Amino acid sequence: MQLAAQLPEHGYAVSVALIDLGVMEDTIFSAVVARVAASMPSVSFHTLPGVEDPLKLTLDIHFIPRYLDLLRRYNERLHEFLSSMRPHAMVVDSLSSEAVVVAKRLGIRCYNLFTSSASILAAFSQLPTLLPFPHGNFGELGDSPHELFSLPPMPASHLLAEMLEDPESETYKTTMGSLCWIMEANGTLVNTFESLEARGVAALRDPRCVLGRVLPPVYCVGPFVGAIAEAKERHECLVWLDGQPDRSVVFLCFGSIGAESHSKEQLREIAIGLEKSGHRFLWVVRAPVNDMEKPFNPSADPDLDTLLADGFMERTSGRGLVVKLWAPQLDVLRHRATGAFVTHCGWNSVLESVTAGVPMLCWPLYAEQKMNKIFMVGDMGIAVEMIGWQQGLVKADEVEGKVRLVMESEEGRELSARVEAHKKGAAAAHNNGGSSRLAFAQFLADVASLQDRARTGEGIPMGLSDA
Questions:
Q1: What's the domain range around 266?
Q2: Which of 23, 98, 222, 394 is 20 to 30 A removed from 68 (C-alpha atoms)?
């Protein structure tokens, strides 16, 4: 939606096509769509007619193939919608990349909006070409490093869980197939800026990245940070932060959708480590994973007195604040009192922390977050890793030690300096002559080169299948 908001300024009409919002039974997402639509009167929103027998989706190992199958079934609905308006071009989110088939059928240019990093896109462009290979499948390689062109060695265990499945499984085939469709588009807009990911961007532009294949143009147009329609009420945690010294608070938050959570044992280890560190903290806690209950309910109310170490809340009263379920992450990161961020390494969270100038402690949980961790700790130099996440338990001593490292040590000060430099780079990217501004202008120039641009009443539909 941040991309869509920029297009009317350049004379384009914008239409947003959504699949049925009920497939995830997510009332929060539906409310967000309604709020955003109300805040953007210049943009038209269209919910595509439903398909027969739509699957109800749950967050498990089968989510990706089921979701992609659902989107595939919506392609005919998308075809009808595009036929009625004949747009200049279409932009789709990464999971909707197979919609390029519809665009090609109608002679419409199709672009991806890749909402993860350029480094991840460089890896994803190569991975489908690496099988078959002697080891059989990625899952059998474990932590063995896998060499990718112009990228740091990637332990196979850090790939998407769907990629670690049997190569003959439907989950594996569907996942790899979706990556191939991304490369069939006319170009890819990436939510990043060049100075943050110089190595990943260079890989994508190098003809050796995927042998025998010229990748479509890549436009680094980010970072897109923040919401279109902000909440009006100020969260109580921000009031608490107002009373804390500058750069004194460690913020712990592991994602807004709650697709994963920590065990009871892990929550207690975090609590002990935070208490022993002696530092101020703001911690967003979700109910723990209960292996006996599937699917996991991310909205369950956590019982803090039961979950955390005995007397923890009382002993840390004043220097610590525990918030249930959710906090306004970007507002917290931008607050003068926040000095470090313990994150699950989702790309939105990474960009929010970078643009706020806050160093990070990596604790990846799912999806491409493990891959992000490698780039954050290595090439970008904006984070340190919490050891133990891969074994399923980060010990209290590790929590204490890494918090002290970032908040007290010379290494922590150097980390902060690098993040601050990238913060300035993010701002510069959108200034006149900045890399992201130039990339966006090039994207518009490529769209404008279409032969039928003069046709009146046409626009750029934004195909957004999910948040």
A1: 236-425
A2: 222
